[in-house]
Design goal:
heterodimer; A: alpha+beta; Ubiquitin-like (UB roll); Fumarate Reductase Iron-sulfur Protein, Chain B, domain 2; 3 domains; 5 strands; flat; B: alpha/beta; Glutathione S-transferase Yfyf (Class Pi), Chain A, domain 2; Rossmann fold; 2 domains; three-stranded parallel beta sheet; 14 helices
Chain lengths: 228, 297
């Protein structure tokens, strides 16, 4: 009887189950006996694999969330999304340019955006999704990369978009273009690469590869001590 | 004066020289554009179906930003929203009037919004040309450093500034606002037949040849009327009349090209502003030889 007090009833794909009230959607499903082999990943809110759609008791809204980060409530109706079959254009990063023409070619649906903001409402990461889509529409790749930085590619934005835009894939393109063409270059990297090419570290590396296991181990641990 | 300013997507990409030259010319007249801190697409193209309310979300969202600016004190009691692109002007203004006239539609839109405050229908959409006129064309004349008296300019209105009649900023059949501006710049305006003829608009994507045909008619009419160049306020018209001259030349080898400028570029030239801001290298047909021959560069 005491235990019953800590239980809530959830409806997994329409079927009622009693689960502990501290469960996340993932653990509630497992408690109910489902074995999740897809639509599940890190369980830490980082990988974006466990996008889920649920509705709470007395609410008409379908809400999106990460199943590993959302605690169940009594009367919740839920389902797990195993996979997002969204369109993913293929491109060679070396052959495209960081401007509006690339956006137009690879993601023409962006230009159907009606600014309804449904994507932003759906985002479990609280990203202003519509704003980065609008930035892409203006050809501002850097702004789109910046706004979308926390995207974990769960795909809920695309799932809810009435204009059929695949926001998260477009954001990935923006960040790739930013990294490849727009990000500030660090001269140290080029200097280090040149040092490597000039063979500055060749001898040291050669010596290491020729060492026996014991010497190598000693050298490794003495390196740790040296650092301190 | 400080006025909320809506740039639109094209002015941030392919028509950056339109924006730069407009902001610089306005500054010379003590008009400061305050860009909306956050804005989205204007909503092109205006939906004509009575029951299509969804496509008014984008324009109304931008109008809410004007109210937010007033509330934040970025502008003081200035609910007019200034536009440069004719298409943005047209789309935003049509939506602003629609939700003003149909309160039920506005209720549906406000219900749909998320964190935004309700829109009350109080924002007025204006075009830069209207602000210039209100400010006084005589003030423009006083700023002229380089006289354009030897330059014959054909003002091209297109459709979006003038039609439909309820939203147009001038008489749809016999507009004069560009001519008034040109006179203030000491440039003799060319009177011509094709000034408000359609450029072909978005057909440019599907049917370049038709657009080239329309463009050829417009451009040769300007030339026959004695024009050295054409000015416009619409990035789409500019594309169809300027960039499409490549195809026109292919179809009509005898065709002589003619420069097409944004009216703000011409203002910036007359005001003697910095070359970088005028951005003449961004125009498809190179206007520099013409302007040099008139001693304007």
């Amino acid at each position: 009887m005491k235990m019953k007090e800590n239980m809530v009833t959830v409806y997994i794909m329409g079927e009622a189950y009693d689960v502990p009230d501290s469960s996340t959607i993932i653990t509630a499903m497992e408690y109910a006996g489902f074995q999740l082999t897809t639509g599940i990943g890190c369980r830490e809110g980082f990988c974006g694999a466990c996008a889920t759609i649920y509705r709470e008791k007395g609410d008409y809204k379908l809400k999106g969330a990460l199943a590993c980060q959302t605690v169940v409530t009594d009367g919740m109706t839920l389902a797990q999304i195993p996979f997002m079959p969204s369109e993913k254009p293929i491109y060679n990063l070396q052959e495209i340019t960081a401007d509006i023409n690339t956006v137009k070619e690879l993601f023409p649906t962006i230009f159907r955006c009606v600014s309804c903001n449904t994507c932003t409402k759906a985002c479990p990461q609280d990203i202003e999704v519509m704003d980065y889509i609008q930035a892409l529409k203006k050809g501002n790749i850097a702004e789109a990369a910046d706004i979308s930085f926390d995207c974990i590619r769960c795909g809920l934005c695309a799932l809810r978009c009435p204009a059929e835009i695949v926001q998260y894939n477009a954001a990935t393109l923006a960040r790739r273009l930013y990294g490849r063409y727009l990000a500030k270059k660090s001269p140290e990297v080029d200097e280090s690469i040149k040092e490597i090419e000039d063979g500055k570290y060749d001898k040291e590396l050669d010596d290491l590869t020729k060492m026996d296991r014991k010497t190598l181990s000693e050298k490794y641990y003495s390196r740790e001590t040296k650092l301190r | 004066m400080k006025i909320p300013y809506y740039p639109g997507c094209t002015l941030k990409s392919t028509a950056k020289h339109f924006e730069n030259s407009a902001i610089a010319s306005a500054k010379a007249l003590d008009i400061e554009f305050i860009e909306l801190p956050k804005w989205n697409c204007c909503g092109v193209v205006t939906p004509l179906a009575e029951d299509d309310i969804m496509h008014h979300v984008a324009p109304v969202r931008n109008m809410i930003r004007v109210l937010e600016m007033n509330k934040a004190g970025t502008v003081s009691n200035e609910k007019r929203l200034l536009t440069l692109c004719s298409m943005c002007f047209n789309t935003l203004k049509r939506s602003s009037l629609r939700v003003k006239e149909k309160i039920d539609d506005l209720d549906i839109l406000n219900d749909f919004m998320y964190k935004e405050e309700d829109y009350d229908g109080s924002v007025e959409i204006v075009h830069f040309l209207e602000i210039l006129k209100e400010n006084g064309f005589d003030k423009i004349n006083k700023k002229v450093k380089k006289s354009l008296k030897d330059l014959k300019v054909a003002p091209y209105y297109g459709c979006m500034l003038l039609r439909p009649k309820d939203i147009g900023l001038d008489d749809p059949e016999r507009p004069t606002i560009f001519e008034e501006l040109l006179s203030a710049l000491n440039a003799p305006p060319v009177d011509w037949r094709a000034k408000n003829k359609c450029c072909g608009s978005f057909l440019t994507l599907e049917n370049k040849e038709t657009v080239a045909k329309l463009g050829h008619d417009i451009l040769t009419n300007a030339q026959k009327s004695g024009a050295d160049m054409i000015i416009t306020s619409c990035p789409l018209c500019a594309f169809n009349l300027d960039n499409r001259q490549k195809i026109i030349k292919k179809i009509h080898p005898e065709f002589e090209t003619i420069p097409v400028l944004y009216f703000t570029q011409l203002m910036a030239i007359a005001f003697g502003l910095d070359k970088e801001l005028i951005g003449l290298d961004k125009n498809f047909i190179n206007p520099i030889p013409l302007l040099e021959s008139k001693g304007l560069l």
